[in-house]
Specification:
about 900 residues; eight-stranded mixed beta sheet; 35 helices; homodimer; alpha/beta; eight-stranded parallel barrel; elongated
Chain lengths: ~900, ~900
């Protein structure tokens, strides 16, 4: 077995590593090696591998065997390459020692510059640079940095000393310190180190190097790094590489300087070199922002040769890397040195434009272009956002429950929101939490703010569906509806006060913040077109109103995957009939109330079917427990009692009898259909009467009736029987045939387990992953706020399972269900209609598991389309999906009507 | 292929069938054939098979091919056998036509007697019997029965006619009707039939037979039969056989008669022939109870030869059938005919005695004896029951939530129950529903009655644990605590009124019903000993107090499978400390409150460990959500506010913030341990301090610490870490080693799915099938009352999944979990601690799935022991269980202390 190589050298004659070795050399090390191989001028150096770091930790923070010798060898080679000696009092080699992991973790780990300086080599630096002040300034910086990073002596100890010195002398900036003062400070610094560490500041450069390498290794497990890894799902097992590189100095005089550049505009994506430069400065100074950097033209004017070389280099690098790059470079006495090249961060807008243009330039393929944009980032493009330049007074923060921004006057009830919005007011609805009754008010508001509830609370889900911004669970706000105000600490916000919500970050802002409008660029449309070609998954929307349906269709929805019928029950006066229906004492009374609801519900379906002409619409029959529709306030009870001609007390007693301890696990879903079949009959009738009505007008309608909360196959069998019976009855009356299917939600563990038996009676499965996650985990999303944040923060869970599908648990149940369902019915159509349907990692899971479609809220449709495309490009389906042929419809002899013009137009 | 045989003949020369052919011939038919084969005198006849019935239904209620011809052939053979002709005017053959399914369904289906009578054969019957009145009486009975059963003319039509006739003549009983009146009635009857059916009463005997056979077939699907099958889990696919048999008459004079007999006493099991006889009567008359039957001795005195033959026959039959038999026989003019022999129904007491004695007599093996007793029936032997002879005023019915009977005065609060019980009062605690706070009151009461809640409600579970009778979910009762009364319709029951609860049937009885004490006979102990030898499953108990533990041990518990620590939190004053702990604002305050609880909880464990000396005790760390411990009443809040020195409003606001929408899926179980580790630390400390305390006294303690509501392996890993850390700390302090294990509840679908990963950190699994059923079905047991009864009544579900494990859904998850857990840890101990642990079919499932033990409430332990034995005898484990060696304990180097004397004594 070959001896393990711990260190990879790079220099002007080429490198032992290359860009493809990121896992071993880290991003920075691999790119430095790559640039060397491309003969780009890079200060020579070497990279200690990530594996060495892993071994270091495996062996109780000790160096693996052979590392010492390799380090000595590479250091010698570097000295030779640079013509300088490490610690040489006449011409010293100075080093930078930097971390560099596989994934970029900017600023998370430690760096030491100017390593190799000591009381002796200092002299050499002064002599070689011809600048004694510079040498002493470098030395005091080195002591500070090394002590802070390696010796654990906090930086402030040194900064306080400088402050005292400056005050004593009476100067303001560090640069004004005279040479003597610097020298005195270095002495002071060394004393500080001795006091804190009980040993003198290390003068031996090799000891300095050894200690610095250890410090970089150890920084892999510092607090910041751990937290960063948690946030970005980076495994702790990767370790970091250490890059040791000869120092070059941008602060050597007028022909020196330092710069950063992007090869294209990271804000807009425009194809222009985007760089900034500081003469006579080190990288630190750019970052510190003390001096304002110049545009690259100025540098070009003063150092035209350097500029020409830089242009050649960046163009070559961009072509080589085939991506927009973020570059760091230094000019030392007229010589250009590249210090870093990495793929540059960019806004969503820029990402889209760069991807599309690079593809058009022939740099990348269309599939690669599709892969270049983070699906989640598209959110930025779809919603109003707060002007990033604006100064804001942030009052408090909640959860970023639904993205975008909203500005409006504070109101506390849905009724008032509707009333005031009607006269043109912009409003923010502030509630402890929202309930289905608030939907009208939520729709009329610019945004919703709640004090309780999580990312999947009612407010959050509904707001996302509406594309309306929402900040949920802002726990610091205390609402007093009686006093019509809310407070955060000592600040009181009254009804009518202006506030701004930032649903993308969770900020609650006092006053009116300026907003920026979204625009969907041509580049965006082009990219989405390529994504649509690449993806296999269909993307549908969750929509309950014609308006939502239209929005979704504009965003590219290919049907409705979840049309909740209960939201219709709250609109306008119909809630009264709904309550009559619920509180009916006899079947006759219930039938009367249902008869009043039938035409309204039919009208709802007419609107939605029309908006979705030619596309499938999955209608879920009534799902929530009936008590959700009951009055909440005393006043509502009085109104209802008058309507029904009964006593308030009687009404309340009856309502009380519907109370449930665990409504999530209660009398809901198809359990309602089993016990009150008249409700499902009415809804089925409304669906098919609406369909027939439109069919007569030539509008193609494709209803898919979905049965919620099926646990046992017999529930599905009976529900299907009911739907088919009523549907056939309506169609017989109307003398028409509607193409329709009947399917089952799979949202309980039992349903997944007996999916084969349910599939006997179902034309399709739609996974309700919200409820499936709740039941599989035994975790109520409404109550999880008290411990789930703790779980994700302390790493008990990697991810909130309500945000991204828990593959290990819930995911396995889903797979089981798909396999069993398709086992007996190979053509079974399978989709998802939970909140996960618009989350990229979950979409990827659905692709891998052979789903036919995902369904999500309208504003997440582009995200889902892109995620589906990326899944198809990178993860070819492990499980073959059913042929995209339609699942067997409920009745065999179905005459398929010709699609309408509108439907044809919309088909790709 | 052999032609299918539809009919099996039986007669004095032997039979085509036998007792083993019950599936084909039904119970009655098989036994009639068997008796013929044994040369017991049975009126000849034949049986139409159950398969013929199935075909009849499969073919749209038409006779299968060949049945006609076979019927004709068998009828001819029967005529020859009997020397009579069907419909013969001089010597007619008369037939009985009876149903007979595989399982006994007494009275559920139809029977026609005296078939073959018509205006002509009537004369022959009169001539042959020499009794014209008898012949006409038989004819009018036949017309009534045939019309009712076959023609659908209701019996009351005929009975009204008889009543009118009797009034007209002025006689009281049917037997007093003169011959002329009978003749006139027959004419009237025929007219009634003509009016109702528009056709004359069928005179053709073959047509009569054909119609009667159809009627018996059809009766398989009558309402009563369907309901009976549902109750007793009899598949509708079985069908019924039809037995056609020559009539014999017990009403032919002084040497005729009819009798029923049991070969042993069905009430006590005593070995004595237990028979009743009526001279000159038909079977009907015995059933009608018009005349009081005589003891068998009287019959023996008057018909000694018949008696001697009967004795020979029953002894022979009992020996042949190897079981206690229920016999029917008729004596026709001095000739004995056996009409039926079947295994006799018996009380639990009799079942136990008969099984044990028959085994001792060498009739059956010990295993067979064990199989002869229904485990559920043992309940009768363990609880006080209402004197079956008593006359009762049943006020209403609820669910039979916990068996036994209780008599007491009505009270409405737990406090009052405790107070009054202290002065010796017998009380029934009546509550809307109970909560953990009521436990003291429940314990002090004779029984508990609740208006809401199901078989697994808090009241039901706790009452069963206490062996206290409970009627739950008595929905008709309306409680007014304010007025201190409850009503059922117009009846009001006030505080202090006496009522009696029958927890075995759900009856609520006005006044004091007389009770019968249970006694555990020697036979019972013998049988249980045999059962213990046969079973492989261990049987543990769910017990939270030393008292429960002792009771359970007396019933044969081999350890505690579930000791809930939360019940301890309610006792006495400690609830105040619990509330302080919950409402603590800082970790310090919480620590203070926990420090107060520690010694109390330690004392609890000392008591329980001592009671279970030498046996394992599984302690479940705190499980319920904290808000369950908060005050419920205004007064409690005031007391607590004073205790804590805070305002009531503040306290309530804090309590309100703990409210949960779905507490079942909320902040409970190990989620508490993750967020408030101090609670679990205190409990662990209490367990190990108690264990060490006893170890010092030489008492062997085997604690098994159980972590509830584990969903993710990381929860288990951290919980185990906590327990081990605290345990080791205590043992180090005490200088002792306790043998202990740490295991996981498996009560969430996710836990079953990732059982392999959880097993890495768990020494044992204990299935919490209550919660697992709730989450797998998405069904809250507290709320299921609104639809679950409908589900079982209408056949959507065969069984309430909270009563017996749902094998298809929940069961499959359980199997998956066991397989995965043992896959990585072959020695993993697996048990069950849900309510199902004491239900025979669930125990059978646990056996088949390779569990190590079941755990159930103390009073169900004998049931579980017997069920476990039956499972072992009939269903050898499909999945090999882990070796009964102990699972790897939490620490390897564990010194096993020598078992105490008491432990040795108790070990089998």
């Amino acid at each position: 077995m070959a001896k393990q190589k711990h260190i990879y050298f790079f220099g002007p004659k080429g490198a032992e590593g290359a860009a493809g070795m990121k896992n071993l050399l880290g991003g920075k090390g691999a790119n430095l090696a790559e640039m060397c191989n491309l003969k780009v001028p890079v200060p020579a150096g070497f990279t200690i591998t990530t594996e060495t770091c892993v071994q270091f930790f495996d062996q109780g923070r000790r160096w693996p065997q052979g590392l010492d010798a390799e380090l000595a060898k590479n250091l010698a080679r570097l000295e030779k390459e640079m013509g300088k000696r490490f610690g040489d009092p006449s011409n010293p080699l100075l080093l930078s020692v930097r971390s560099g992991a596989r994934a970029s973790m900017p600023g998370m780990m430690d760096t030491v510059l100017n390593l190799g300086l000591n009381d002796e080599s200092l002299k050499g630096l002064a002599a070689k640079s011809g600048n004694e002040w510079f040498a002493w300034d470098s030395y005091r910086r080195f002591i500070t940095m090394f002590s802070d990073v390696v010796l654990g002596v906090e930086r402030q100890n040194f900064e306080q000393a400088i402050e005292r010195e400056k005050q004593r002398i009476g100067v303001i900036s560090d640069a004004e310190l005279p040479l003597d003062a610097l020298k005195a400070l270095v002495e002071q610094f060394k004393k500080i180190v001795r006091e804190h560490t009980k040993t003198p500041f290390p003068q031996n450069p090799r000891e300095q190097l050894r200690m610095a390498v250890n410090a970089v290794f150890n920084s892999w497990h510092n607090k910041r790094a751990i937290e960063y890894r948690r946030l970005y799902h980076i495994p702790a097992s990767w370790g970091t590489a250490v890059n040791v590189q000869a120092m070059v100095f941008g602060n050597m005089g007028a022909e020196s300087g330092t710069g950063v550049a992007f090869t294209r505009d990271p804000g807009t994506g425009e194809r222009r070199f985007f760089a900034e430069f500081l003469f006579n400065a080190q990288g630190e100074d750019v970052v510190a922002g003390i001096r304002t950097p110049l545009g690259i033209e100025e540098m070009g004017a003063r150092l035209p040769k350097v500029k020409a070389e830089l242009d050649r280099i960046w163009q070559r690098l961009e072509k080589h890397y085939r991506d927009m790059l973020d570059l760091e470079f230094t000019v030392e006495s007229g010589a250009l040195w590249m210090l870093q090249a990495r793929v540059g961060k960019r806004t969503a807008e820029a990402a889209v434009r760069i991807a599309v243009e690079m593809s058009r330039e022939g740099l990348i393929t269309k599939d690669e272009a599709v892969m270049r944009v983070y699906p989640e980032s598209l959110d930025q493009l779809l919603h109003d956002t707060i002007d990033p330049a604006a100064e804001l007074t942030v009052l408090t923060r909640g959860l970023p429950a639904s993205p975008g921004a909203g500005v409006g006057k504070v109101v506390f009830t849905a009724e008032e929101t509707i009333e005031l919005a009607a006269s043109g007011e912009k409003l923010i609805l502030v509630r402890q939490e929202t309930s289905p009754e608030d939907i009208g008010g939520m729709n009329a508001a610019q945004g919703i703010l709640t004090a309780t509830g999580g990312m999947t609370s009612h407010a959050a889900v509904v707001a996302r569906g509406m594309g309306k911004c929402c900040v949920a669970g802002a726990e610091q706000i205390k609402i007093s509806e009686r006093n019509q105000l809310f407070t955060v600490g000592s600040v009181a916000v009254h009804k009518g006060d202006w506030i701004t919500l930032d649903g993308s970050t969770g900020r609650v802002i006092l006053g009116k913040a300026p907003l920026v409008k979204p625009k969907l660029s041509e580049h965006f449309k082009t990219l989405m077109g390529w994504a649509d070609k690449a993806r296999r998954l269909r993307v549908r929307t969750n929509a309950d109103t014609p308006n939502d349906a239209k929005t979704a269709r504009d965003f590219g929805a290919e049907g409705i995957g979840l049309c909740r019928t209960e939201h219709m029950f709250f609109e306008g006066d119909r809630i009264i009939s709904v309550r009559e229906m619920i509180l009916a004492k006899t079947d006759e009374d219930r039938a009367k109330a249902l008869a009043k609801l039938l035409p309204m519900q039919r009208q709802d379906f007419v609107g939605i079917f029309e908006a979705m002409e030619g596309l499938p619409v999955t209608v879920r029959l009534l799902d929530p427990p009936l008590h959700e529709f009951l009055p909440k306030s005393e006043g509502d009870y009085e109104v209802l009692a008058k309507d029904l001609g009964v006593l308030v007390t009687e009404l309340k007693a009856q309502a009380q009898s519907l109370h449930e301890f665990n409504p999530m696990l209660g009398h809901r879903g198809c359990r309602l259909g089993m016990t009150f079949p008249a409700i499902y009959e009415m809804q089925t009738r409304a669906i098919f009467e609406a369909a027939c009505h439109l069919l007569k007008k030539g509008v193609v309608v494709k209803p898919e009736v979905m049965i919620p909360l099926v646990a046992h196959q017999e529930e599905m069998r009976r529900s299907r029987e009911l739907v088919v019976r009523v549907a056939e009855d309506v169609m017989k009356q109307e003398g028409l045939r509607v193409v329709y299917t009947v399917g089952s939600m799979i949202e309980l563990p039992r349903a997944a387990i007996v999916a084969d038996k349910i599939a006997e009676h179902a034309d399709f499965f739609s996974y309700g992953t919200n409820d499936l996650t709740q039941t599989t985990f035994g975790l109520s999303r409404d109550d999880a706020g008290r411990f789930l944040p703790h779980y994700t923060q302390t790493g008990i869970l990697d991810t909130d399972p309500f945000v991204s599908i828990d593959r290990e648990g819930v995911g396995e149940l889903i797979k089981l269900g798909v396999a069993r369902g398709r086992g007996i019915k190979p053509g079974l159509k399978v989709g998802i209609c939970g909140e996960h349907g618009g989350e990229p990692r979950s979409v990827e899971f659905c692709h891998e598991t052979g789903f036919d479609y995902v369904s999500c809220s309208p504003y997440r449709i582009p995200i889902a389309r892109l995620a589906a495309a990326q899944a198809a490009i990178t993860a070819p389906a492990a499980i073959k999906p059913a042929k995209t042929k339609k699942a067997r419809p409920a009745k065999r002899r179905v005459k398929k009507p010709a699609p309408s013009k509108a439907a044809k137009r919309r088909k790709r």
